[in-house]
């Protein structure tokens, strides 16, 4: 049998070497159970469950509008921790949801915060869920006043801590739409004690009409994909009350509250179809922008009214800004603008970036990090019980792809200062900076692809690669980086552009290109620019003043051996560009690409000391396993060195073999026999005699209780190197039917890990005698052909001892005769064969020697002729070429019952004729008789030996 083969039914089990001898299934399962139990205990200790929480839902009427005198119903839920009471009031959190969601979207976060001891109020914003009213996009008179009314309600609760009469202790928390609302609320209501907004905007006009040279939204490039998704997600959905629907339609209600259809204003009905629950004036502004692709002064004014940028100077509440690095809707620059505006007044501000955002959901580790930052901030600035949060800025870079969930792994870094990357940075020298022509396609189609808004993980995976249309972009590559470059902040580059129309809309991207040429677009973001007053031709491009482009802010590591590629494209699927075709000339100024390089400090995993405890336990297990491996190897080395000189020349010596199982059952009691070179030995015995157990011990799969097995003088133990000199076919061939016989043999040998040239494939095939059939698929094979292929498989490498279990199973008499020839051919050049079978007549024809086992004890062993002895049978050996003539003569002879071929001789069953009659008949037929000996049938002897008559 060969070591290192894959185990399974129909194939030899592996001869376990090294670690396989130690890592048994039972040991592995036991170790895993122990480790899992310890890990579960550590998790329970490290992350105990929070308080139990009760929740109450209610429709609440609030007063909003410019004068806060317009009633509206909001659908609310309050989450109250068990510890909150009139005797123990707790701080409160107003938790706002994102655009297109409802209070249900933040239910899990609300329970988490309530479990930490905060009373949490959630609500569906106006125009969403079951709340009334229309969507006014965080308008100070409406959404902001709605939230101020909710603070008023918190001021009336005796289980909420109060700073003064009518002033509850409260934080404003939210993501995206809810994040902007929390900042606006803090600007308009000084009762807000701290703010934690996530992935939100600073200036909604800049967010939807970005322009990366600083020109402002009036000259910005319309972010049409995100705007369409933003508007479409709420334009037609959501339940509303009959009263609100009547107001939207300009209709009256009857006495039963039903809408009087005869009073519906047709223009209002059309407006409802187009705008759904959006405030009509806001809807008209969106439709105008979507049609023209440009921002009018009215659009800019309306969007800025709903932007935190309008109130940053009034925010005095400490603010934690958490922004996503996978966010083409509200990029990192939006958080940076918020941080600068709030910090200008001296208000404490901290910024953290994380690997997530509108384009990709965060990993569990990143979500835990963000939640921990949020909770630490609230504990200090809201509850007053926690330590002051660190002033450091943190961000995340992508690592290798995780095998578990195919997402990139992450590495977290911190910097002492914010904003990051404000120095001179790392200058990249680009190749090919001379003008390159790029074509703007008609109607902007086809367009390059940088992101797919709203498509979750697919967005991040496609966006990270980017797609540029040939002929529509200019590319400039940098030299290979000699060292890693950590970047955090906003890269910049200077361009010169010429256009036949004097204007151009372009999209600038910064790729990371690995050593194999694979490019990724960090964050999936691009920098859109709209340039006017440009020179008209390539010859005059040098007259254009260079423009500085601020590329999207990133947190990214460019690894050593990678390079940077700058791409300037004319069309992007996410943006609206000029419809008219044109060819622009683009040039990059030499050495103008600046990367904001930083020197970050890596952050240890937040699980902290408990992870180290678990690592320590795993290390202890690893040390124990290593010691066990070394002990096993040392023992095996000693055993392997000790060679029994009396058995060194024998392929197999079995001495006093015993095997007792745990329940006391003795499968093998006392078994001894020897297999010498050139022998084909049959191992015989009835069912339950111990044959299979003996074979398993022989192959090193189980250990004997007593005695020993020697192969060429080396003692057999699990994993013993001498097992490589054994080939085995046990319990069926385990062949792959869809492959050819040859492919099966190749894959089998490949699985052993040995060099292909050591398989000696041609010799094994010649001995097995498969011929051209080896090239056919195994599913077309007969049973006999499958058996021969399986034996050829066991013969690969021409092992010195071949062990076969029922090799003639399913073979017809001619095939059995051929099998005898196959095994005889194999048992040459010092090799030997051990055959286990219950078909006695076949063993008698195939084997030269037999070992008879009964009830675990060897009862006879020796040559077949000696075991059989005298009887009615005689063995007649004739001259070469005379066997067929002898067979014909004896079958016609009176007094002969049966004639069976055996090698170059014949086994003759006498029924009245004498041996002298047989000789006389053969000589008379011209047959040369070389030898005639008495012979009994092996079956007769076997029954006598095992005591079954």
TrEMBL record:
Transmembrane parts of this sequence: 28-47, 609-632
Annotated Pfam families: ABC_tran, Peptidase_S15, PepX_C
UniProt xrefs under Gene3D superfamilies: alpha/beta hydrolase, Galactose-binding domain-like, P-loop containing nucleotide triphosphate hydrolases
Keywords, ordered alphabetically: ATP-binding, Hydrolase, Membrane, Nucleotide-binding, Transmembrane, Transmembrane helix, Transport
Domain ABC transporter: 652-880
Any one Gene Ontology molecular-function term assigned to this protein's record: dipeptidyl-peptidase activity
Protein family according to the UniProt entry: Belongs to the ABC transporter superfamily.
Listed name of the protein: ABC-2 type transport system ATP-binding protein
Origin organism lineage: Bacteria, Bacillati, Actinomycetota, Actinomycetes, Cryptosporangiales
């Amino acid at each position: 049998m060969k070591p290192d083969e894959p185990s399974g039914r129909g194939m030899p089990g592996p001869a376990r070497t090294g670690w396989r001898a130690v890592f048994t299934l039972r040991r592995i399962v036991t170790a895993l159970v122990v480790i899992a139990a310890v890990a579960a205990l550590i998790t329970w200790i490290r992350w105990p469950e929070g308080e139990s929480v009760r929740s109450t839902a209610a429709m609440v009427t609030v007063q909003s509008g410019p004068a806060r005198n317009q009633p509206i119903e909001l659908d609310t839920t309050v989450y109250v921790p068990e510890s909150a009471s009139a005797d123990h009031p707790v701080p409160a959190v107003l938790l706002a949801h994102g655009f297109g969601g409802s209070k249900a979207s933040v239910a899990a976060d609300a329970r988490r915060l309530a479990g930490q001891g905060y009373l949490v109020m959630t609500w569906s914003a106006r125009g969403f869920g079951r709340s009334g009213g229309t969507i006014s996009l965080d308008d100070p008179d409406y959404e902001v006043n709605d939230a101020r009314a909710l603070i008023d309600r918190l001021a009336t609760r005796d289980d909420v801590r109060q700073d003064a009469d009518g002033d509850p202790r409260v934080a404003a928390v939210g993501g995206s739409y809810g994040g902007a609302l929390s900042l606006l609320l803090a600007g308009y209501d000084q009762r807000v004690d701290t703010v934690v907004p996530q992935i939100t905007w600073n200036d909604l006009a800049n967010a939807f009409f970005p322009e990366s040279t600083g020109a402002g939204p009036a000259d910005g490039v319309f972010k049409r994909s995100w705007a369409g998704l933003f508007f479409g997600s709420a334009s037609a959905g959501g339940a509303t009350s009959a009263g609100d629907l009547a107001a939207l339609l300009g209709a009256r209600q009857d006495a039963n509250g039903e809408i009087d259809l005869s009073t519906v204003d047709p223009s209002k009905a059309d407006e409802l179809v187009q705008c759904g629950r959006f405030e009509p004036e806001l809807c008209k502004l969106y439709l105008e922008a979507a049609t023209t692709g440009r921002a009018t002064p009215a659009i800019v004014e309306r969007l800025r009214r709903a932007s935190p940028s309008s109130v940053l100077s009034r925010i005095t509440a400490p603010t934690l800004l958490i922004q996503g690095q996978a966010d083409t809707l509200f990029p990192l620059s939006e958080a940076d603008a918020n941080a600068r505006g709030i910090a200008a007044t001296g208000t404490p501000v901290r910024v953290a970036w994380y690997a997530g955002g509108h384009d990709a959901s965060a990993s569990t580790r990143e979500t835990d990090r963000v939640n921990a930052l949020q909770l630490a901030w609230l504990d200090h600035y809201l509850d007053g019980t926690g330590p002051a949060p660190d002033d450091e800025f943190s961000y995340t870079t992508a690592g290798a792809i995780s095998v578990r969930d195919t997402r990139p792994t992450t590495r977290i870094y911190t910097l002492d200062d914010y904003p990051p990357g404000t120095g001179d940075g790392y200058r990249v020298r680009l190749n090919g900076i001379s003008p390159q022509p790029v074509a703007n396609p008609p109607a902007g189609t086809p367009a390059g692809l940088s992101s797919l808004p709203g498509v979750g993980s697919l967005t991040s995976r496609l966006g990270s690669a980017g797609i540029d249309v040939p002929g529509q972009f200019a590319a400039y590559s940098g030299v290979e980086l000699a060292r890693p470059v950590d970047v955090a902040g906003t890269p910049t580059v200077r361009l010169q552009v010429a256009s036949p129309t004097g204007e151009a809309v372009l999209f600038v991207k910064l790729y990371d290109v690995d050593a194999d040429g694979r490019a990724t677009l960090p964050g999936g973001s691009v920098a859109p620019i709209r340039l006017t007053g440009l020179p008209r031709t390539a010859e005059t491009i040098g007259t254009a003043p260079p423009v500085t482009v601020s590329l999207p802010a990133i947190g990214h590591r460019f690894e050593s051996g990678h390079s940077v590629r700058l791409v300037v494209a004319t069309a992007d699927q996410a943006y609206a560009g000029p419809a008219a075709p044109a060819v622009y000339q683009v040039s990059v100024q030499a050495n103008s690409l600046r990367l904001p390089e930083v020197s970050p400090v890596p952050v240890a995993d937040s699980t902290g000391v408990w992870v180290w405890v678990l690592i320590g336990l795993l290390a202890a297990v690893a040390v124990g396993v290593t010691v066990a491996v070394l002990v096993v190897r040392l023992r095996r080395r000693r055993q392997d060195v000790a060679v029994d000189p009396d058995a060194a020349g024998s392929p197999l010596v079995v001495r006093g073999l015993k095997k007792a199982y745990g329940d006391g059952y003795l499968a093998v009691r006392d078994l001894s026999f020897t297999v010498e070179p050139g022998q084909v030995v049959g191992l015989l015995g009835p069912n339950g005699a111990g044959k299979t157990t003996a074979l398993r011990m022989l192959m090193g799969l189980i250990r004997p209780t007593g005695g020993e097995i020697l192969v060429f003088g080396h003692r057999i133990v699990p994993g013993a190197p001498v097992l490589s000199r054994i080939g085995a076919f046990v319990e069926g061939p385990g062949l792959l039917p869809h492959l050819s016989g040859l492919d099966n043999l190749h894959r089998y040998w490949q699985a052993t890990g040995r060099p292909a040239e050591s398989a000696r494939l041609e010799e094994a095939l010649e001995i097995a005698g498969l011929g051209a059939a080896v090239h056919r698929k195994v599913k077309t094979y007969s049973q006999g052909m499958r058996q021969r292929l399986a034996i050829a498989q066991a013969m690969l490498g021409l092992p010195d001892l071949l062990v076969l279990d029922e090799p003639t199973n399913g073979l017809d008499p001619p095939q059995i005769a051929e099998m005898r020839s196959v095994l005889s051919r194999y048992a040459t050049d010092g090799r030997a064969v051990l055959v286990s079978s219950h078909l006695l007549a076949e063993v008698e024809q195939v084997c030269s020697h037999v070992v008879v086992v009964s009830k675990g004890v060897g009862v006879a062993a020796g040559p077949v002729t000696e075991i059989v002895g005298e009887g009615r049978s005689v063995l007649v050996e004739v001259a070469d070429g005379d066997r067929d003539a002898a067979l014909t003569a004896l079958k016609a002879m009176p007094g002969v019952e049966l004639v069976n071929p055996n090698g170059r001789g014949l086994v003759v069953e006498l029924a009245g004729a004498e041996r002298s009659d047989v000789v006389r008949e053969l000589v008379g037929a011209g047959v040369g008789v070389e030898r005639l000996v008495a012979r009994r049938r092996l079956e007769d002897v076997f029954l006598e030996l095992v005591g079954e008559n």
